[in-house]
Specification:
Largest interface: A-B, 23 and 21 residues
Number of domains of chain B: 1
CATH architecture of the largest domain in chain A: 5 Propeller
Number of domains of chain A: 2
Number of strands of chain B: 17
Shape of chain B: globular
Oligomer: heterodimer
Strand order of the largest sheet of chain A: 1-21-20-19
Helix content of chain B: 10-25%
Strand content of chain A: 35-45%
Number of helices of chain A: 3
Distance between the termini of chain B: 40 Å
CATH class of the largest domain in chain A: Mainly Beta
Strand content of chain B: 35-45%
CATH topology of the largest domain in chain A: Tachylectin-2, Chain A
Helix content of chain A: under 10%
Distance between the termini of chain A: 19 Å
CATH superfamily of the largest domain in chain A: Glycosyl hydrolase domain, family 43
Radius of gyration of chain B: 19 Å
Chain lengths: 313, 288
């Protein structure tokens, strides 16, 4: 099997790739044509249609309507890709705050970004996790720009997409002694499950999933995502079988065959030469064919700006 | 704190760990004497620690248990690097009451050539800093703990009596499946059904607590703390911690809760670390 990016995936790839080879042969494709162009194609769910119609593959573009902002970070969208929430630096007085922008249709730019007043604090607010329906927002708030001093996970909700978010409140997690630890990079897997990174010490961190019995009830259950490497900022698919992250090698994927298994090694699905540097967490469309991320630009220096980008793959 | 259970357990295990009882039960066998001498060596190693802390006030929290919580051996540990197996071992708790501040395991390894080795395995169960040092040059100064206490998602309402809660704790402990990786081999660890220790700490809101272990044979590799808290309402919580350097895996009700890779090194300030030195053991015929 030939991979464009050349590394080995977990065994789940093999039967899919074999099927793809058979289909390719049946369809009369030329033998030299690569059957599996990206490892992600072999393990992610089949797409009904492209999440962003017309978005070329492996060509990063600014997120329309908000990609021009120079200090935007940690994008997160609703499942229909019509609402985006991200951290944006507006003034040194309040550091990063959360902003929201919406659009009526998928093929038009987002409207102007607005401060989410219910989530605004004098602290640094970033790493938003927006529920698929866009009605629940969980994010990280801390006393310092690096989100290390007394970080808290806050939660805000709204009854419908046209209403403002409520005043944020601290989100309790089923951890005893949690105030001693840092929590980072939350992400809703679905209405009942919230993934986050637990940083216990400089040496110990783990990606965890908190669960609740129903929407808006307290999180009670806590499990571990058995990744090979817990240090990157992972985005996890709703079925818990695939995890993506943006690191120096590009956008990388790790996968497993079932939730009883551990994850295999990660490998690039969008190489660094295509995507450039990535700053902070990434967010993927539910079909896992478009990644949204923050790019610090070629130089990688904060002065170069932090722009919200997207890339199809 | 219930002191009877660990004493009884220690007596049973210590008796089983001492090989070679003679026919005359009133007269100690050679094996008994050697086992007693090995225990003396390990006790002296424990008693030789000077323990200080700027963050832990109570002196009793910085004292080891009077007796080991567990005594075992493990002849299967042939590492291929001259190690012939664990001849004798003991598990000690730091802190005379409440949740242990730390667990220290001492193991006497026989080697093919050279002196036997006394290994020290340390695991901190408190975020508070303390330091311990022995005249043998063994030093450990943990700055934190990896112990993560988590509420059970589904658990019975804690019983009203210690006996009822022990029954519940055994049932809760059986919901865990724990494995260790030795090389490429994945080994299912078995739950020792008797808790090694039982404790409470009203000041910390712990109504009842127990220390269980998951073992490879009799060698404990993973510790499990089960606690019933009584702050607002009675709740069960759990925390797993390593007692082995191997990669460890654990699931609760089929959900992943622990995936601990091998430690990258043995720093003296790590929550889990180990060290060792040579030790002189009594000769086989010395006891005659």
């Amino acid at each position: 099997m030939k991979h464009v990016f050349g590394k080995r995936l977990a065994p789940a790839v093999l039967p899919v790739a074999a099927s793809a080879l058979l289909l390719a042969a049946a369809g009369g494709l030329r033998a030299q044509e690569p059957v599996v162009e990206s490892p992600a194609l072999a393990v992610r769910p089949p797409r009904q249609r492209p999440s962003v119609p017309g978005l070329p593959r492996l060509e990063p573009q600014p997120v329309p309507g908000v990609g021009e902002l120079r200090r935007a970070f940690s994008p997160c969208l609703s499942a229909d890709l019509k609402t985006i929430v991200f951290a944006n630096w507006f003034s040194r007085k309040t550091e990063y705050d959360l902003y929201i922008a919406t659009r009526e249709k998928i093929d038009v730019p987002f409207g102007p970004a607005e401060l989410i007043k219910g989530a605004a604090t004098p602290r640094t607010d970033a790493y938003p996790a927006l529920s698929a329906d866009g009605l629940e927002l969980v994010y990280l708030s801390a006393d310092d720009a690096h989100l290390e001093k007394t970080p808290k996970l806050l939660r805000s909700t709204r009854p419908d997409v046209n209403s403002p978010f409520s005043q944020a409140e601290e989100l309790p997690l089923p951890l005893i002694g949690a105030s001693r630890w840092r929590i980072s990079n939350p992400q809703f897997l679905d209405k009942r499950r919230l993934k986050f990174c637990l940083i216990q010490s400089a040496e110990t961190r783990s990606v965890r999933i908190a669960s609740r019995s129903k929407e808006h009830s307290p999180f009670k259950s806590l499990e571990l995502l058995p990744l090979e490497n817990h240090w990157p900022l992972w985005w996890v698919s709703a079925d818990g079988l695939r995890a993506y992250t943006g690191i120096d090698e590009g956008i990388c994927l790790a996968n497993r065959n079932s939730t009883a298994d551990e994850f295999g090694p990660m490998e690039a699905v969008v190489p660094a030469k295509v995507v450039g540097k990535i700053d902070g967490p990434i967010w993927l469309a539910p079909q896992e064919d478009v990644a949204f991320y923050c790019s610090p630009g070629e130089q990688g220096s904060p002065d170069a700006g932090r722009h919200l980008m997207m890339v199809g793959f | 704190m219930n002191h009877i259970l660990p004493l009884l357990l220690w007596t049973i295990v210590a008796t089983q760990a001492a090989p070679g009882r003679c026919d005359d039960e009133t007269k100690p066998s050679k094996g008994d004497k050697l086992a007693a001498q090995r225990l003396k060596i390990m006790r002296e190693a424990i008693d030789g620690f000077r323990i200080t802390s700027k963050e832990i006030d109570a002196d009793s929290s910085l004292k080891f248990s009077a007796r080991p919580l567990l005594r075992y051996n493990d002849q299967t540990r042939n590492s291929g690097s001259g190690i012939k197996g664990v001849l004798d071992a003991t598990v000690w708790r730091l802190g005379e009451s409440g949740r242990p501040k730390a667990i220290v395991t001492l193991e006497i390894y026989l080697v093919n050539q050279g002196n036997p080795l006394l290994t020290y395995e340390f695991v901190s169960l408190t975020p508070e800093k303390f330091e311990m040092q022995s005249l043998r040059g063994v030093r450990w100064m943990p700055h934190d703990t990896d112990l993560l206490m988590t509420e059970f998602d589904e658990a019975p309402q804690p019983g009203d009596s210690p006996r009822a809660r022990l029954v519940q704790m055994r049932e809760l402990a059986r919901r865990f499946a724990v494995q260790e990786m030795l090389g490429a081999e994945k080994i299912d660890l078995r739950l020792l059904s008797q808790p090694l220790d039982r404790y409470d700490d009203p000041a910390a809101g712990i109504l009842d607590g127990a220390l269980f272990v998951f073992a490879n044979g009799t060698n404990p590799e993973v510790g499990l703390l089960l606690e019933c808290s009584e702050k607002n309402e009675k709740k069960w919580s759990y925390g797993l911690f390593r007692l082995a350097a191997a990669k460890l895996l654990a699931q609760l009700d089929g959900k992943w809760i622990l995936q601990s890779t091998k430690p990258p090194g043995w720093p003296i300030d790590a929550p889990y670390t180990a060290t060792r030195h040579a030790v002189a053991l009594p000769e086989e015929d010395e006891g005659e």
